[in-house]
Amino acid sequence: MHDDRLDDPRPAADASEEVHEAVLALLKSEPPGRLLDAPAGEGAFALHARKRGYTVVCWVPNLFHVHGAAGLTLKGRATD
Asked: How far apart are CA 22 and CA 7, in angstroms?
């Protein structure tokens, strides 16, 4: 069975786009800096934050779950 998600280079968001935008809006008054995304899931929020100038460190409980997170700093441990 073929998984069509493997053909999409964008990471899937675990939260809605509105949640990502709301969090970034809360950070708007602060200058971009280093941001921890934990748990990062597939990195969708991290990519949004990086586009806005943040240096993003992602923590994922299972590094083998990350899809399409090229260019992000990943920290975590392999499980399962």
From this structure: 29
First-to-last alpha carbon distance for the chain, in angstroms, is 22
Identity at 27, one-letter amino acid code? L
Q: Report pLDDT digits (tens) over 12-68.
A: 777 777 888 899 899 889 899 999 998 888 888 898 899 889 999 988 776 555 555
Distances (CA, A) of 39 to 4, 31, 63: 24, 23, 11
CA distance 65 to 42: 7
CA distance 67 to 11: 6
CA dihedral 47, 3, 77, 79 (to 10 degrees): 150
Using CB atoms within 10 Å of the CB of residue 77, give its burial: 0 to 12 exposed, 13 to 18 middle, 19+ buried.
exposed
